[in-house]
Amino acid sequence: MLLRPSPERLSSFYLGNTENIVQNQTGPTPSISVRLFGTFEVRRDGVALTAADMGGCKPRHILEILLLNLGTPVSKTSLIEQLWGAGASDGAVATLESYISGIRRAIQPGQTKTGPLRTANSGYVLDPQLVDLDLSNFHKLVRAAGVSEPAAAYPLLLEALQISAEPLLGFELASDWAEEARIRHAADKVAAQIVAAETAATLGVPDDAVNLAQSAIRAEPLNERAWTILVTAYEQAGLPVEGLSAYDRCRRLFDHDLGCAPGPALQAAHLRLLRQRAEGNTELSEVLAALLYLGDRMNGSKSRQQPAAESQRMHEHAGRVLDAFLQRVRAAV
């Protein structure tokens, strides 16, 4: 579930400064705006350009590769390798240069030297000050959130996640370079979702934290940090049953896929939920206390200050509590 920032959660920092974050107001106005999430789109002076305007699919691919490396020169050799691979012909350089000319005519007519597409280091580069790119805006917002206080960071993270709601380069299904970019972005998006979930929990919005953590888990089922914030958010929301269920799913998943148990932070959250669940229920409290006592004994945690007779008495009491509880469980089935 994608969360949209609500007006009451948008801080004054966000309302006054987001535009400055996604665009450099002291630099030149961007010549083109490009969308790589969802349907590919290039707009120049408010007019949408099609792949046909740039000469077809290959020029679009070239532009997309340069956009993925916004501000960093990409050599002709690299472009040819990504576009044609080992099957590149002897005329690949001339073909590439022809495609570049077509892209220039489309995105910067009459501005060969001053437009966003420049020649650099035996290759080409897009000037980030002249290109408004949604993928770049995603990263700017996440970076800004990383140096902001929680109240200011949270809406920035939600805006970044809103920008990236649709798949990156979803229309380039058969391209290795596009798949590599999607993999990198997927990891970045999960990281942003987890930070947003943790920030929501810090701000006392556990429902948002649950939804964000669940989104991260759907993308990366073995991400322990996402499971930890999910269980913690359920704890914060006063939903121990849901939290215990989430922990059990995580425990079984980790055991099956990784052959290990959840780490200390997640186990600690699980224990807090058990205690929360037992509050107000004398029998559950006694069972939990018995389990914790016997667990400590099994792990070799023995009290040196406790007499042997007292230790034996407590051990027997814990056994009786668990035995009585199990008998009631069997009778109820």
- Helicity level: 55-70%
Count of extended strands: 7
Q: End-to-end distance, in Å?
A: 37 Å
Structural class: alpha+beta
The largest sheet, given as strand count, sense and whether it forms a barrel, is: 4 strands, mixed
CATH class descriptor name of the domain at 22-134: Mainly Alpha
The averaged pLDDT comes out at: 83
Spatial order of the strands forming the largest sheet: 3-2-1-7
**In one word, what is the shape?**
elongated
DNA-binding region: 21-128
Protein name: Response regulator receiver protein
Keywords: DNA-binding, Transcription, Transcription regulation
GO molecular function: DNA binding
Question: Could you explain how this protein is built, in words?
Answer:
Residues 21-128 form the OmpR/PhoB-type domain. Residues 21-128 bind DNA. InterPro entries: AfsR-DnrI-RedD_regulator (IPR051677), BTAD (IPR005158), OmpR/PhoB-type_DNA-bd (IPR001867), Sig_transdc_resp-reg_C-effctor (IPR016032), TPR-like_helical_dom_sf (IPR011990), WH-like_DNA-bd_sf (IPR036388). It comes from Arthrobacter oryzae. This protein is 62% helix and 7% strand. The chain is α+β, with helices and mostly antiparallel strands and 333 residues long. Among the domains are: 22-134, Arc Repressor Mutant, subunit A, CATH 1.10.10; 282-333.
List keywords for this structure.
333 residues; alpha+beta; Arc Repressor Mutant, subunit A; 4-stranded mixed β-sheet; 3-stranded antiparallel β-sheet; 62% helix; 7% strand; elongated; disordered N terminus
Question: What is the topological layout?
Answer:
Layout: H1 12-22, E1 32-35, E2 41-44, E3 47-49, H2 51-54, H3 57-68, E4 74-75, H4 76-84, H5 92-107, E5 117-120, E6 123-126, E7 131-133, H6 134-146, H7 150-163, H8 176-202, H9 206-219, H10 224-236, H11 240-257, H12 264-278, H13 282-298, H14 308-332
Parallel strand pairs: 1-7
Antiparallel strand pairs: 1-2, 2-3, 4-6, 5-6
Helix pairs in contact: 1-7, 3-5, 6-7, 7-8, 8-9, 8-10, 9-10, 10-11, 10-12, 11-12, 12-13, 13-14
